[in-house]
Amino acid sequence: MRVYVASEEHFAPIVKGDPSLLLYCSGDESRTLPEYDFDLPTTVRTAAVIAQSDNVFSLEGDVVAKNLLVANPDAIYAAVAGFRQIALDITGIPTPIWARFVQLFRAYITILYTAPKGYTKSKIDDDDFHDDLTETVYGLASLPGFKRSLLLEDKKRVLIPLLGFEGARFALIAKQYEEYAEDVVPIVGVPGYRLHYPFLTYLANKRVLLSTRSWERVKFAAAFDPFETKALIEKIITAGRFESAVVAPIGTKPQALGAVLAAIDQPETVELVYDFPVRKHGRTKGRRMTWVYPINSAGQTSA
Amino acid sequence: MTPPTVNNRAEVALLEAFGNFRMEWTEISVDKYFAEPSYFHSLKTTRPCVIVGGRGTGKTTALQALKSRPTDTGRGVASDRIAVYLKIGPHIPNNFSGPERSESEWAKIFLNHIHVLLCRLVLDALAKQVQKPQLASEAGDFLLQTLEGVRPEKPVSSFSELYTKIQLLSTNIEEILNNTNNSPINTVDEWDRPLKLLCDAVIRPNNYKGVIFLIDEYENLLCYQQRAINTLIKFSSKYITYKIGIKELGWKTRGTFIAGENLRTPADYSLINIDQEQKADFRRFASQVVQRRLRLVDGIEKRDMQIALPGLKAIEEAERLATKVPSPLRMASDELKEHLTSPQLKKHFTWADELDAYVIKSLAEARGVPLAHLIRELSLVAPQRAKQRARNYRNVGLYQLGAKRTDIKKYYCGWHTLCLLSGGNIRFLMELTQEILIRHLRITSSLQEGVSQELQTAAVTAVAERNLYELEGMTVYGRRLIRLVQALGTLFSACARDGFRHTPELNQFTIKDHENSNKDTSSGVDELLREAVMHLALVRMPTTKRGDTSQLMSEDYALHPIYSPFFRIPFQRKRKIALRGEELLGMSKSPDVVLREVLNKHRLRGLFADDESSFQIKLDF
After folding, report:
1. Helix (H/G/I), strand (E/B), else coil: B358
2. Under an 8 A CB cutoff, do B170 and A150 touch?
3. Banded model confidence at residue A71, pLDDT cuts 50, 70, 90
4. Closest Cα partner for A188 from A180, A177, A200, A176?
5. Which of B91, B221, B225, B470 to substitute to test the interface with A, most A CBs within 10 Å?
6. Rounded distance, CA B129 to CA B121, Å?
7. Where is average pLDDT lowest: B168-177, B294-303, B460-469?
8. Given A136, A210, A273, which is nearest B91 (Cβ)?
């Protein structure tokens, strides 16, 4: 599957006149607003996702639904019933919520994501962006909808962290899983959103890359390409003959999408682990292009 | 810091012998490396036990040693009981929580999950231990019915069939976790009925009397989850035993699901506190562990660790640090002798060596009084008392001698010192020993010679730094703990260097005015202290009865001694400074700002030179 730069054609209805639904979540970052370089067709209805937490959200706009639980698929299905095409702009939506949507509506959903122009960094002598990007993390758990009850110790397991600019998050995951995973194989976004971003990723994560010696095993997938990331995760598992993979989507959202798709396709093998960060206000600046990821089963590019 | 790369066969052997100082990394190691700690006999009884200790104190090793193995060496509790080990993983407890269900609903799901999990572990273990494991079919049916809530469609006829069906139950639980619409949650009327049925179905038919559940990292469980397993422990039959491994302050509750019924010791369980058990015995135990490993490297049966890792007496250290010409020690000694003008005075100061002379002279300078004045003051008390007063500042003298050096500013060496730096933690001790010996091998290629004090100091400093940054991954508070340790280390380091001007060897703190703090500050400090102690950033010296965690803020604390070489501070418990709760919290969030305020505050007592460059705050977190 391919990655596209979003345009009006991606919103053309597959069946003429059929309404489609665009869901988005606007926050303090300007890129979270559904303000694209093109006009949305009149058949597109929109609704804002109001995230009360990582587990509870409401919809407001052309679709209204209150207090939807991520753990309750029936209620989510009911809320968006009547739409055969859904576009989900994940830019501002918390990962636990959009991941669940992807899991439930894989067959007829298209994903959009807008990258920022830049990230806030206030400390010049600290390579880790963690203090600028995240208030705190709640702790480790599976993503809702992807919960597992067991972590069987006798499986040959690999830990695959998708690295971002926050070494502290990698440190927590690497430490907590060091005795469960035979190997750590990080994925760095190359190319990144900007030319120098991969270097920032290495710098931010250098302490843990060194202490785990995983710098020797780093693999690369484009920071904005979930399909390449998914394929790479599958390749790491197969090439290493691992029976199981713990994937930590702590890097870019497109790469996280790749991890989610891998977990949906191989639920017995791929386990998603997340640290549920509380994002800091003003963590990013501006907006770059909007990408479209046609993840629906037919690979159709229209929302 | 990068772990050392391997250069030769001796290093490979050393890394293999010591590299597995984390027992979790290899199960085979238990038979090869295990040395029984002093409390092990208490753990081997059939009573429920809770073993409390920090990471690296040997809890997991001790529990793993009890586990049943196909090649059982009979070390376990009793060969008529099957022992299975369960570690509470990092994210699984949180998977059993969320707003979609009430806590009581989650408790039912979790209890069901625990029953299924424990059954699976036993079946796994039996399949490995017994060639053709037997099944009492009727009991097996009842077991499945109890776990599933419905009678099986057809009776289960074999052990492997039961095993498959129980595996499927885990999948069912995952369906429930991911979907609130699922069928009602199964509940059991008796808490441990599934486990009793397990005994009837597979344990007794295979000639075992009972089962022991070894549950490690209990602190990872949420509060209600601990309550669930506490209930199982409280009401377990005599054929089912639990051995729990938990970090200090990891108990969230001793309550159960029966109102008014809590877990109590010794009525319901024996408590083993590793710190207390091993306090007197740690050096012997550590020597045993290290020698066992070294034997695998070079075959030497017994070695004297004090010769292998020699230390320095204070006067020897002073001579190494005072390399300026003329020696400040010699100058101070000569000056002291000049003032001992009468035979009585000379006799009064016979105890004073060159370091004592240096200390007395420095004390006089710090107070701004002539040396003769201080000598006269000391001569007015008994010689033993004078000696004690001067020797209170002996280490301060060492810190001052080393302060302006560019290489080693303070020595940390000797087997006795390593044991103290490790704080009774066998993992730290092993890590220190490994680092020292690897570096030694690179210079000498032989473990027969004693290791130089300089090399020991460099090695333990590297280990201290490594462990400091490892805190980041220990807990979601990791970065805050690092900042706190760095801030306190810097504070105590400044105190150590300028100890002549105030109370010597300040290396502990207490929280003052905590009863007047607001609720947010109190709970913030409480949480920070709990995490810091649990993950060995701090050690506590309780002034209240241990286990009473409601009084955390009224206790005394110090940095874990493992960090002492990195900050060049004393590692033995000395004297304390009072900090406010807000200051402690501030150190964990904005250490550079808060630390400067704290340092300035104590400057009022003439603590520091006016020139701020005399101390540098280097906080890279």
Report:
1. helix
2. yes
3. very high
4. A200
5. B91
6. 12
7. B294-303
8. A273
